[in-house]
Amino acid sequence: MSHTGSSQNVQENTDFTRYPDERGHFGIYGGRYVAETLMPALLELNEAYRTHVRNPGFQKELYGMLKDFAGRPTALYFAERLTRKTGGGAIYLKREDLVHTGAHKINNTLGQALLARHMGKTKVIAETGAGQHGVATATAAAFFGMECKIFMGTEDIRRQAPNVNRMELLGAEVVPVESGTGTLKDAMNEAMRYWVSAVRDTFYVIGSVAGPHPYPAMVRDFQKVIGEETRDQAVNEIGRLPDHLVACVGGGSNAMGLFYPFINDPAIAMTGAEAAGTGIESGKHAATLGAGSLGVLHGSKSYLLQDQYGQISEAHSISAGLDYPGVGPEHSMFKDLGRVNYVSITDDQAMAAFYELCRTEGIIPALESAHALAAAIDIAANAPPDRVIVVNLSGRGDKDLGIVAEYASGSEDG
Fold first, then answer.
1. Is residue 145 part of a domain?
2. Same domain, 124 and 151
């Protein structure tokens, strides 16, 4: 596990919940860097977000769906055998793999689809990498009776075929994107291009805390239910708040969902695990915060992977959900302020953690979550027994079994 060099210079009394500002900035990050044709749609969305999402009636309707349709609250599970084998601190798992559709993505898609209905939109579009966001969007669209298009890179269609089948069964049209490397970045490019032409009746459901304002804040707000539940469950089941929170970071929505309700508790440490692929030095990685630089991608300013000419570099991870050259702007601010420590986990380290959880706890994690597990195992091994570490198990690993088989046979090119 390599550390990305957080500055650890958190200013005392900083209120992290006051971000973003009115223009959608998290310090120097975030904002709206889009074509003029998209500005009316984003302003309409921002107004609807401010009007509806913060309304108690909207929240009551949303939390009712999260409970009765999505299956919340998810369990906070003590991984006793993994803890015993690791030694050191106690490892708890926030079981987002148990929610409907098998990943945290459903929290956000139900929220955005509900907002789309309040705005009078009849169609939704989305992009997806690992397929979990695509399945969750197709599910929400079916729930509300909306038309649905999912943009997906051809490489990710190959890697995540079971999720493509699920989206089609749910009535969504999966649109293959052949440009670039055929991964999440290219799918998001194509989805934004399509949205420009269909904005009147179509709502774009972005899957992470990325994109132009208000998406990073809005997705965070729909995902913070993860951390809110964790606070209550830790107090009720352990008798106090946890000491350390760990989550994987691609775009960063599951991490932000766990972290945000604790962000103003300075005694609680937080670690985000990025994908180091075959190693930072190899150049085949997706460690945006560890090896990226300041730039603009998909409508917001943040750290991203780019060459000396500002061209977006190809990202790599064994996990399709982390295979993205950008990151949410709020994570970039937290890195600079030292509020969250970001580390890089290689494909091999993630796979070792994947097998460890399967064999010690009988739980098959998503490969995204395996990156967080690898970081948590390292943290726990170096912590005293009374230290409580909560890992966000963001999704289940059924979708990744083909990749695991390739890795096991040695055919995965890394």
1. yes
2. yes
